[in-house]
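thought: user wants a sequence for this fold. calling inverse folding tool.
action: design(structure=
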């Protein structure tokens, strides 16, 4: 029902169901953060790989936290998160 308005629903009920059913959950946002780390780690330049693993882990975790925070604060839609989870590059991820 997410994204489709049923003709017999009052507008207020439609808005409630749309927001309740379409908003990304905390779990969705966590998956989005994990996807960021996966793509970030997979696209490190050769120069970046010379840094210590601890520095790279900290950078990835900081990015993950930022993505999760934005997802929650901006109330990303579940559809938007699902699109981002299919990204195969950081460029694709940034676009969604």
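)
observation: tool returned 96 residues.
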């Amino acid at each position: 029902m997410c994204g489709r308005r049923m003709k017999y629903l009052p507008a207020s009920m439609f808005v409630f169901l749309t927001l309740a059913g379409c908003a990304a959950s905390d779990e969705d946002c966590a998956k989005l953060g994990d996807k960021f780390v996966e793509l970030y780690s997979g696209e490190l330049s050769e120069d970046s790989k010379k840094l210590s693993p601890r520095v790279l882990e900290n950078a990835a975790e900081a990015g993950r936290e930022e993505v999760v925070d934005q997802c929650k604060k901006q109330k990303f839609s579940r559809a938007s998160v699902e699109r981002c989870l299919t990204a195969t590059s950081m460029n694709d991820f940034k676009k969604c």
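thought: summarizing for user.
answer: Here is the designed sequence. Residues 24-95 form one domain.
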